[in-house]
Amino acid sequence: MSDNRTLTTRQGHPVRDNQSMRTVGERGPATLENYQFLEKITHFDRERIPERVVHARGAGAHGWFEAYGKIGDEPASKYTRARVLTETGVKTPMFVRFSTVAGAKESPETERDPRGFAVKFKTLEGNWDLVGNNLKIFFIRDAIKFPDMIHAFKPDPVTNRQEPWRFYDFIAAHPESIHMVTWLKSPWGIPANYREMEGSGVNTYKLVNAQGEAVLCKFHWQPKQGVRNLTSQQASEIQGKDVGHATRDLYDNITAGNFPEWEFCVQIMPDGPNDDLSFDPLDDTKRWPEDQYPLLPVGRMVLDRVPDNFFAEVEQSAFGTGVLVDGIDFSDDKMLQGRTLSYSDTQRYRVGPNYLQLPINAPQVGCPFATNQRDGQMAYYVDRGGESKHVNYEPSYLGQGLKEAEHRAQEYRQFIEGHLGRYKPTRVSDDYAQAGERYRTFQDWERDDLVNNLIGDLKQCPEALALRMVWHFWNADEDYGRRVAEGVGIDLEKAKALAPLPGQPAPGENRAGPTYTDGKLEAQAAAE
């Protein structure tokens, strides 16, 4: 299966680094002139019509959110000026879409797959979309790899079958993915239903208060119904009777008045590189340890109404990670910055440039939204703003039309300085540590199911690939690697003898970063 052709862009330019976006310094932010990334991600967004490329199979429900007014024991206003999180006594309308990731629109809901957990808050200050999944991490930490990842997980372009070797061929080249694989191949990879499932924003965001001060944060949904997952055998038994069991469970419970409820929590960390940590808090393949950064309750969500029409409300619902409200901001998380372009770009392509005019996506009634954006395919909004409707630009010398909003609080500003380039992450020593910790904290039945699932998959893979995967698992935890090796029939000593992947540091070690002398790379300065 070897192929020695050089990877290029669609313009024919050689790709010398397909792992990293161009960023200002190792930790970002990313820049808009990332042509290689933009070409790759925008083509990926348009690969399927009209079905979603990912998260095609889904179910949705309406509900409301109510803030506690506190974050833990502190007033919420200490950390954020977002009214949806600080004001009590307000029930903010919401719409939630649950989904699987890799499967097609009619695929079984019992498939082993991350579950999407996309939430649209329709606040009085505009929409806030929180788009994540049921697991608190992801496979990759740089958005430029997302099209490759999904291509590997989707059916083979020749056979149209999802092949285990394609999945593990991609995973084997990404040590940071072992953590997610450990979760996914355990019972946590098949939630029993949508009601008994956690949710997480996955990416790192920032909360900003009225003084313009920011902290890093992660958002999580904890189900008050508890968490319940399925083994492979249990899932197979359900799938034989009902391929849409999770949708049925959600709709039947809401219709019967058994409204599911989640507590909304945040984890908070000081803004900055946090060099004392063994991992980068912007790395979405890592969890923030809850003993150091506890889940602090912020509010609750209740789902109490099913959609009136599946297509109009669930299929046409559109979410984007860039849809934030004042008081919640972006971090330099490379996956978040890449998703922010991709998600909304996908919606404009899939549903149309005026997807926000659809009732399911439009801000709530009472939100004073107004825009100078006009026309485009399927536009039906008509501006009836009197004489000012002639002025669809800003500013106006005559003082007509829309005007900029006044700042009600100190603007958040971030100082950025660094060398522009493509950087490989340096803090990678925890790529195996958290996967091993997860393996050891699973219950015995969860470990058994995880190992059996991996054995079944790797028996269908070439020996070289199985050897490398055993090497990864053994570096995460010796018992983990040994059990998988024995089940697959792999020589453990042969797997342990493998060298680290080219360009990767030894497991448990960090990668050396670039060294600068008088503002130039050390190698460049020496050459001069």
UniProtKB/TrEMBL annotation:
<feature type="domain" description="Catalase core">
    <location>
        <begin position="8"/>
        <end position="402"/>
    </location>
</feature>
<comment type="function">
    <text>Decomposes hydrogen peroxide into water and oxygen; serves to protect cells from the toxic effects of hydrogen peroxide.</text>
</comment>
<dbReference type="InterPro" id="IPR011614">
    <property type="entry name" value="Catalase_core"/>
</dbReference>
<dbReference type="InterPro" id="IPR024708">
    <property type="entry name" value="Catalase_AS"/>
</dbReference>
<keyword id="KW-0349">Heme</keyword>
<dbReference type="InterPro" id="IPR018028">
    <property type="entry name" value="Catalase"/>
</dbReference>
<feature type="compositionally biased region" description="Polar residues">
    <location>
        <begin position="1"/>
        <end position="22"/>
    </location>
</feature>
<keyword id="KW-0408">Iron</keyword>
<dbReference type="Pfam" id="PF06628">
    <property type="entry name" value="Catalase-rel"/>
</dbReference>
<dbReference type="InterPro" id="IPR020835">
    <property type="entry name" value="Catalase_sf"/>
</dbReference>
<feature type="region of interest" description="Disordered">
    <location>
        <begin position="1"/>
        <end position="24"/>
    </location>
</feature>
<comment type="similarity">
    <text>Belongs to the catalase family.</text>
</comment>
<dbReference type="Pfam" id="PF00199">
    <property type="entry name" value="Catalase"/>
</dbReference>
<keyword id="KW-0575">Peroxidase</keyword>
<feature type="region of interest" description="Disordered">
    <location>
        <begin position="499"/>
        <end position="528"/>
    </location>
</feature>
<keyword id="KW-0479">Metal-binding</keyword>
<dbReference type="InterPro" id="IPR024711">
    <property type="entry name" value="Catalase_clade1/3"/>
</dbReference>
<protein>
    <recommendedName>
        <fullName>Catalase</fullName>
        <ecNumber>1.11.1.6</ecNumber>
    </recommendedName>
</protein>
<dbReference type="InterPro" id="IPR010582">
    <property type="entry name" value="Catalase_immune_responsive"/>
</dbReference>
<keyword id="KW-0560">Oxidoreductase</keyword>
<keyword id="KW-0376">Hydrogen peroxide</keyword>
